[in-house]
Automatic annotation (TrEMBL), chains A, B:
Binding of Fe cation, residues: 129
Cofactor note: Binds 1 Mn(2+) or Fe(2+) ion per subunit.
UniProt-recorded name of the protein: Transcriptional repressor
GO molecular function, one term: DNA-binding transcription factor activity
The species this protein was found in: Vagococcus silagei
CDD domains: Fur_like
Amino acid sequence: MLSKIKKQLHEANYKLTPQRESTVLVLLENEKDHLSAEEIYMLVKLKTPEIGLATVYRTLEMLTDLKILDKVSFNDGLARYDMRKEGAKHFHHHLLCLECGSIEEIEDDLLGEVEVIVEHDFHFKVKDHRLTFHGVCQKCQNK
Amino acid sequence: MLSKIKKQLHEANYKLTPQRESTVLVLLENEKDHLSAEEIYMLVKLKTPEIGLATVYRTLEMLTDLKILDKVSFNDGLARYDMRKEGAKHFHHHLLCLECGSIEEIEDDLLGEVEVIVEHDFHFKVKDHRLTFHGVCQKCQNK
DNA sequence: ATGCCTGCAAATGTTTTGCACGCCG
DNA sequence: CGGCGTGCAAAACATTTGCAGGCAT
């Protein structure tokens, strides 16, 4: 996992510095958590105290350019980052609970047929998608 | 259209001040355009020069609370606003062109079956959704 | 008078940028 | 030396908030 990313960086002529390695490790360890830049910064600082917030932002931008990361936004005014699943053809989907704010990821490919419709009816060449359902999660329904 | 919104404001105990009316008119006149707060402000200022940016933000927040508007984000770092279609059961979908940046709206209800699956398999009560396809629009494909 | 609504300016929070320094080939 | 990568501080944005005043009831 890490070694594959290392390879991708080298192929793009980036060095895997200690700061970048720590950042990637934090992202891998918290894959499900949709961390913000600030949250990532604080976690990285535990491993590698000599790091600045700007470096985290620069690393996140680089990883996004390399399509290792996806930048997502849930309308809470700040960017969050989400690891691309290896081998996944498409970006996964999210279930955002309007009551407790939790975000659940779902991997199923739900949009195969829908993409065919979009490509055919709207002559739009689909490369990727973002799908988030807003609703109430199971926990909150039981309350 | 405007009169219906006026009624909604009154029912929620808000006054339709000249600033608010201008803002709503700008939104109605540019329904397809996914304007940002700043863009809306500049357009409103042409009609009603005595208006401040803060008032536009406050009006947009109010309209969002009343579910007349939807706040959307296309990962470009600022919020955009989109009128809810009257009578539409669900939020419409977007086609974002990665080459020219244009955003096309599509109204078709593409997610009916998908929502059934989500509710059943993930025990998640769906209230709304956000779906954006990233790809290449017809114009850019022809280039 | 009371309370909603406003413009302006200041504050806030996030992200980007400028710059000088350090490190490695 | 030359250039990438860095930390820090400042700048740049987007958005929110505090406040004094205005207007309608």
